Amino acid sequence: GKLDAMLSAWLPVTHGEYWTKNKDKVVDYGPNFKDAKIGLIVPEYVKAKSIEDLKTDTTFKNKIVGIDAGSGVMLKTDEAIKAYGLDYKLQASSGAAMIAELTRAEDKQESIAVTGWVPHWMFAKWKLRFLDDPKGIYGAAETVNSIGSKGLEKKAPEVAAFLKKFQWASKDEI
Asked: Which CATH number belongs to the domain containing residue 90 in this structure?
């Protein structure tokens, strides 16, 4: 099948490589969510405050639980592991598997670091926070943009008009 639109292009950093390769083939209808962020997320109860703290905190067992290999946040986490000199393994899994590991750690009040992002419902379920990233590997706040195929405005002008206006915020998330 053919895809005419998507509502989840994280720009400029997370999906920047994909955008650079494909920007001539699509139309950017602008941000539908502002202040999006990616990084390493930990439960509020852990002592680590910064990615640098992971070097000396053995409670994380030298593991970061990730999502799908090749995703933007995983590529940035590979960069962060190198930039911060961490002797950590990045465990690729699915979003569901990452949440399952986070659930287990929360239930036992164990240390865990996961790849994550805002907006995400896990912030409504648990008290979580991003680890500080003094080297700025994950970048600043981003936007989540609506992207459409070049022919969308002719094929479905009402959809293109909707995409230009569509916006939401974390408070809208269930």
From this structure: 3.40.190.100
